[in-house]
Amino acid sequence: MTAAALKEELLSIIGKNPEGHKDADIRSTFASKLEEYSKAEGADPNDVIFAIGKTVFGVDLPDAKKAKTNGSSKAEELPIVDFDYMKEFMKEVFLSYGVTPERAEICSDVLIEADKRGIDSHGLGRLKPIYCDRMDNGILWPEKPIDVITESETTALVDGNLGLGLYIGPHCMQMAIDKAKKYGVGFVACRNSTHYGIAGYYATMATDQGCIGFTGTNARPSIAPTFGVEPMMGTNPLVFGLPSTDDFPFVIDCATSVNQRGKIEKYAREGVATPAGAVIDDQGIERTDTEGILRDMVLGKCALTPVGGAGDKMGGYKGFGWAATVELLCTALQSGPWGEDICGVDRATGKPKPMPLGHFFLAIDIEKICPLDTFKKNTGEFLKALRESKKAPTGPGRIWTAGEPENDARLSRTAQGGMKVVVPLQKNMIDLRNNRPGLKEKYPKLPFE
User: Distances from the Cα of 53 to the Cαs of 32, 56, 72, 101, 298, in angstroms?
Assistant: First the structure.
């Protein structure tokens, strides 16, 4: 049985048996499946399912511990893979699923851009678990038409038909940009899409073409409302991009929650506590016990808090308002689903189900308002003043503006010759190479083999 199929069975056991950790037979079944999964080709040794096994079902596998140790090798020992090579590999993977060459090129470009910017959670790391596994499970489709439902000179509503968000997103933002270039402003709403990668990619599409860009997407429910405890909204990024005289645009791309689940999984791997105020449980208690949080998130007993944290002492209602704004812009225009309808799991069976996401894209052509060079100069001067302002004596001695850390990562990684590939992602690449048609002939030996 494949790693993907075994993980699906493990998730099914959890989904069908919320109190299964109290039943000896269910614990035994889970332990057996988890051990089988740990030995399957393509299994991710850093998968949160191992933390759940340990904290919820009391299953602590020595092999998984060993794999995790190997997966966290010193950075200098990791192989460096050229960006062009990695992009081509990802493109070939998409082609093997039947994605057209043009769309496969776009999909791989969105993913490699994340790795270039240092956003490792959304690049190669997403290829197998988010896109390939979901195509394998039949909850998103590699090749679907993009239908225009309504359209005016400046607006459009499109339907992605549950195709890959990685090509739906660029199509929609380019529509918005084209409208802006002709009429000054372009806005496109999208329904029935899927995970569209780093939202900053779309803001940068706009800045590269002399526009201000604005985009957002909803996601599976994770954030509880202020003074609430039930996950109701996704981590819902709210993203802006503005061109500047700097070597990089001003692009702010971040979630509307204090933390994302991936960050909590990272805390678990590092064995550190989750910061107070980032997670609240169904009793209204702010939690910091990282492994307990992961357990209770699976059981639906914990939720992320909005930017500002739990309650209103640090302005959590502001993050709540922004998260709700994104959710509305992704569902109200589209008549799209939200909450449990996009949780990705059939609660009755525990099996994966489609997650029809909504997005929105806005472009403003700067030249319709003022000369582009003037706008860039004004933006650049302000950002330069921010960076040169007085530094905190206890800080790192530098102030970064939005888009700068990503530019630093791009320069650093380009200088080193590409991206470092951790052991779990090496295993994912090997698994895809060995199991996708045509890839073994094209990649008989990967750079780290």
Answer: 11, 6, 20, 40, 11
Cα 166 to Cα 345: distance, rounded to the nearest angstrom: 22
Tens-digit pLDDT profile for residues 257-308: 999 887 887 788 788 999 999 999 999 999 999 989 988 887 778 999 999 9
Distance of CA 87 to the CA centre of its chain: 18
Cβ atoms of 123 and 114 within 8 Å: the answer is yes
What is the Cα–Cα distance from 33 to 6, expressed in whole angstroms?
7
Strands 80-81 and 185-193: unpaired
| Placement of tokens 């209602």 in the chain | 317
- State pLDDT tens for residues 125-183: 999 999 999 999 999 999 999 999 999 999 999 999 999 999 999 999 999 999 999 99
Report the distance separating Cα 30 and Cα 7, nearest Å.
11
Q: Distance between CA 251 and CA 202 in Å, rounded?
A: 10
